[in-house]
Amino acid sequence: MGVYDMTTAIDFILKSTGYSKLDMVGYSLGTTMSLACLSDRPEYNSKINKLVLMAPTSRLKSSGMPLKIVKKYSNIVNIFLDRFNFFPYTNDPDTTYRLIRRMCTNQSAFKYCRQFIDFAQGIILPINNDTILDIVSEFPQPMSSKTLKHMLQLLTSGRFTHYDYGPYGNMLHYHTKTAPDYDLSRITAPTYVIYSKNDTLVHPLDVKWLINQLPNIKDVHYIDKIPFGHLSFSLSPMMKEVVNMYITNKLLDNNL
Predict the structure, then answer these.
(1) Is the predicted pLDDT of residue 247 greater than 90, yes or no?
(2) Is the pLDDT of residue 213 over 90?
């Protein structure tokens, strides 16, 4: 996705608008794609005016409880992912999510739907019941099993590497028996990083590691004064004040 989808999207936008550069804002897996794109295709750095990374996901060495559980059972998860091209697997996603929403409207089942969100988030979000129902009606969307296996590889290895095809496959793809690390020193676009103390999926220690690898960090916004987890970047009622205004100010400041 980083090498093919992201580069195609950048070229399409620049061609359609006539601009020579664009601002790129990524969140979670979107930041992983951005890092992969600008590392493997460094010529695209010249097309990025400002790069904003929210909850940047690269190395997953110091993950919190949700991912620690996934890591513990990684062999089982891998076997499961090998059986399907997409996960969660469903022949009819729209019908499946309608049924999940209907199930969660049941008072006795709702608390478990709420607990699922809180567990993924790591903290209790101050959001109303209707929002919870909206979330379980859409999240998580089916995703390529290969993408999930790649994230699992990052989790188990504690490194930020290309997809591991095994020794033979790696020789074909990379001409080396082991999957190489992404060369983050090649990401020269002006970079702004936003991360939070309470993020249990992308641990602050891993973000600090990433910051130290990137050569053109312009500013870092660390959210530690209020409860703000990984999903807060899209769901928190404080999103405007804590994140959006910061991003807007940075993107509109031509002196940066």
Answers:
(1) yes
(2) yes
Residue type, 93: P
Cα first-last separation, the chain: 29
Q: Check whether 89 has a pLDDT greater than 80.
A: no
Contact indicator for 160, 202 with CB cutoff of 8 Å: no
Query: Which CA distances in Å does 44 have to 59, 65, 167?
Result: 22, 36, 30
How far is residue 146's CA from residue 248's CA, in Å, rounded to a whole number?
A: 34
Work out whether strand 143-144 and strand 86-87 pair parallel, antiparallel, or are unpaired: antiparallel
Give the domain ranges of the chain. 1-58+182-256
Arithmetic mean of pLDDT, 133-158: 84
Task: Write down the mean pLDDT value for the chain.
Answer: 90
Fold of 1-58+182-256: Rossmann fold (3.40.50)
Cα 141 to Cα 143: distance, rounded to the nearest angstrom: 6
Model confidence at 215, in pLDDT bands (50, 70, 90)? very high
Q: How far apart are CA 39 and CA 18, in angstroms?
A: 25
Q: Is 128 buried (19+), middle (13-18) or exposed (0-12) by CB count in 10 A? A: exposed
- Determine the Cα–Cα distance for residues 242 and 78; give it in Å rounded to an integer: 37
pTM of the model: 0.88
